[in-house]
Amino acid sequence: MSASGGTKAIMAALGANLAIAVSKFVAFAFSGSSSMLAEGVHSLADSGNQALLLIGGRKAQRAATPQHPFGYGRERYIYAFLVSIVLFSVGGMFAVYEGYEKIKHPHEIEHWYWPVGVLVFAILAEGFSFRTAIKESNQLRGSHSWSQFIRRAKAPELPVVLLEDFGALIGLVLALCGVGIALLTGDGTWDGIGTVCIGVLLIMIALVLAAETKSLLLGEAAGPEHTAKIEAAMVDGDTVTRIIHMRTLHLGPEELLVAAKIAVRHDDTAAEVAAAIDAAEARIRSAVPIARVIYLEPDIYSEAEAAKGPDPEATPGGPAPEPSGH
């Protein structure tokens, strides 16, 4: 996995979640708090999620094969999608079920200092993990807002860790509130209510993750910055006069496919066209190093053909967008 995959953030989150999971299960054993049980399962699920992200990153590094000629870069998207499923089922649904059972059959929390102490420790540990994820993300985020970064990031690991840590911190606060009110009122129902709130929060985060990773799995185009650099590098105004149309596709977070029909001069020889294509490919790879798979088709630009607009049959699934080169 490349540095942009956020390996440091994943390892920090994995270490924090394993330590927190153990402490929460110990607190549940001594106190009987359903919030502690739900939070323990949540931390255990998060630990498994970080392991899935590491596995996905390692599998994505495999070399291309004849059966998979474009490589295995999308393994990272697949494992990130699995994370959303685990978070929804193991984390969210279990917490909702456990909270519902506690509301139906409430009982007082015993040895209150166990859950309170563990929750304070967990908040500190999750805060460290969240801080690491923020620091790693800031290196890639640029001027984008956090919501834009999560929606547009092509590497899924950092958005996953960010949302998991954010959800964990909010969940810990909810658990602390539920336990605190239950202790103050002597009514264990509040502990169950806090647990249900944790479950709903995890389900919402899981749905956001699922939507974002589904988009990556379907195949996203290059971002606006990379697209502009590719277009500028492709056209030199001499041998390549314009872009007739272009498509880009992320084969993985750090691997981009570029396919374009380019306009060349009508009196160029075959050797000159081939040299122009080679030069354009070199310029593109220099401007955008992740553009590793490039297919350029030479053609003669026609104003009459351009005026007809995009061909609905040119792109599977529907009409192609208006080419920027027309």
Helical content, roughly? Answer: 55-70%
Strand composition percent: 5-15%
Point out poorly predicted stretches: 1-5, 316-320
Determine the structural class based on helices, strands and strand pairing: mainly alpha
How far apart the termini lie comes to: 39 Å
Short description:
This protein is mostly helical. Helices cover 64% and strands 10% of the residues. The protein has helices at 7-31, 34-59, 75-104, 113-141, 146-152, 157-185, 189-218, 224-234, 270-287, 303-307; strands spanning 240-252, 255-264, 291-299.
Describe, in plain words, how this protein is organized in 3D.
The protein is mostly helical. Helices cover 64% and strands 10% of the residues. It has ten helices and three strands. It has helices at 7-31, 34-59, 75-104, 113-141, 146-152, 157-185, 189-218, 224-234, 270-287, 303-307, and strands at residues 240-252, 255-264, 291-299. A three-stranded mixed beta sheet has the order 1-2-3. Helix 9 links the parallel strand 2 and strand 3. The longest helix is centred in the first third of the chain and has 30 residues, at 75-104. The radius of gyration is 26 Å and the shape is elongated. The two termini are 39 Å apart.
Short descriptors:
3-stranded mixed sheet
Secondary structure: elements and pairs:
Layout: H1 7-31, H2 34-59, H3 75-104, H4 113-141, H5 146-152, H6 157-185, H7 189-218, H8 224-234, E1 240-252, E2 255-264, H9 270-287, E3 291-299, H10 303-307
Parallel strand pairs: 2-3
Antiparallel strand pairs: 1-2
Helix pairs in contact: 1-2, 1-4, 1-6, 2-3, 2-6, 2-7, 3-7, 4-6, 6-7, 8-9
